[in-house]
Backbone:
């Protein structure tokens, strides 16, 4: 018997019990739809994280004050005060792989303008920080190197701070207070939105690092250095020479821990990829349980079908059908159920992904590989769980089958 005849017979047999066939496909539909939706959510989350990492700037190298051990007690990162502007200048002079660097130190401050007040992050840095972070101004301008040298009370603000403090006003040129100090607004930064961890990147104020050091925090050291390498490969290659240079400058003996931390954009991207992939596989694995349940449902229904159609099988064998013909018919029925359920599940998964994206404003990315894998596993489920019932039908004794009532 050729395949098309077998397929037509399978469709005719399934059509006899439409409700039962539909309920049998339900497990496959739910499983495939859930896998498609979950994978698209995971891919969307990964894309959002990568966008957040890209917002850090091109070829970024992040150097932070590290930890040390005193009296058996190990402090956390940022616990030492050895990272300085001189370290940053030495990196720029001696590490040709690094093209730009900007100091950074920040803390939370209460800011006041008129009858409005807000608690936000005040970060001290230099003008090239905004080039490193690829962060343009929306209006006005950033403070100058001369203002950094003078430790001037000037700043640029994020759009969140601008909207909260300066309601229906142009903030450029306005003066407000950070703590007890008056600051003039030189510029408003373009909006960056939320970071990959949900932090509002626009809820920030930037001022000259000298001003923040001397007038706000009263320190001489840096919390971190934001650097930019000449290329992404160079950012990775720069880690070793920067480490060697800082250890030498900080007079660290062999065998002692670094008192600084270096991270590159590539490191962060790899970590984000691993995290997103792990979560996607985990959620996809949980959703795949529905496929297993659907496969068991197919096996159950096919076994029932074999029992109900025992006499039919006997008649077919009596008029010349071979064991292979009978086996093929039942196997094709199982695979057809599974593939139809898989096709409907793929459509519902795509619709579900679109609804999640529109209703929850969460980015989703449809993976072609996920769709192909879902179709493949749908067929595999049909073959795997349909084989035993098909084999059982093929091994029936024709004479006993004809006697079956």
Residues:
């Amino acid at each position: 018997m050729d395949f098309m005849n077998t397929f037509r017979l399978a469709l005719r047999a399934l059509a006899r019990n439409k409700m039962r066939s539909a309920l049998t496909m339900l497990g496959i539909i739910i499983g495939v739809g859930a896998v498609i939706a979950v994978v698209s959510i995971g891919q969307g989350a990964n894309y959002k994280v990568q966008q957040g990492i890209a917002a850090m700037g091109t070829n970024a190298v992040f150097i932070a004050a590290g930890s040390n051990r005193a009296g058996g007690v190990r402090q956390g990162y940022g616990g030492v005060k050895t990272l300085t502007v001189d370290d940053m200048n030495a990196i720029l002079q001696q590490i040709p792989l690094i093209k730009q660097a900007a100091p950074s130190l920040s803390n939370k401050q209460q800011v006041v303008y008129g009858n409005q007040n807000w608690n936000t992050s005040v970060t001290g840095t230099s003008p090239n920080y905004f080039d490193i972070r690829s962060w343009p101004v929306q209006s006005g301008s950033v403070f100058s190197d001369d203002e950094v040298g003078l430790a001037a009370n000037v700043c640029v603000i994020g759009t969140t701070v601008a909207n909260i403090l300066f309601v229906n006003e142009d903030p450029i040129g306005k003066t407000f207070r950070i703590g007890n100090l008056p600051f003039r607004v030189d510029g408003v930064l373009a909006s960056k939105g939320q970071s990959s961890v949900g932090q509002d990147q626009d809820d920030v104020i930037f001022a000259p690092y000298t001003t923040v050091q001397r007038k706000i925090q009263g320190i001489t050291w840096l919390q971190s250095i934001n650097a930019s390498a000449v290329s992404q490969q160079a950012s990775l290659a720069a880690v070793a020479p920067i480490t060697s240079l800082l250890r030498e400058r900080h007079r660290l003996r062999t065998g002692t821990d670094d008192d600084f931390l270096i991270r590159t954009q590539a490191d962060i991207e790899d970590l984000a990829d691993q995290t997103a992939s792990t979560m996607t596989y985990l959620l996809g694995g949980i959703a795949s349980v529905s496929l297993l349940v659907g496969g068991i449902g197919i096996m159950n229904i096919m076994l029932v079908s074999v029992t109900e159609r025992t006499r039919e099988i006997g008649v077919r064998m009596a008029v010349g059908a071979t064991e292979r013909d009978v086996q093929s018919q039942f196997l094709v029925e199982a695979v057809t159920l599974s593939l139809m359920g898989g096709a409907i599940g793929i459509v519902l998964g795509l619709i579900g992904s679109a609804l999640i994206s529109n209703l929850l404003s969460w980015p989703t990315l449809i993976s072609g590989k996920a769709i192909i894998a879902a179709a493949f596993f749908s067929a595999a489920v049909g073959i795997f769980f349909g084989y035993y019932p098909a084999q059982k039908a093929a091994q029936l004794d024709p004479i006993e089958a004809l006697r079956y009532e």
Remarks:
- The radius of gyration is 33 Å.
- The chain has two domains: 3-52+271-403, 83-258.
- Residues 83-258 form one domain.
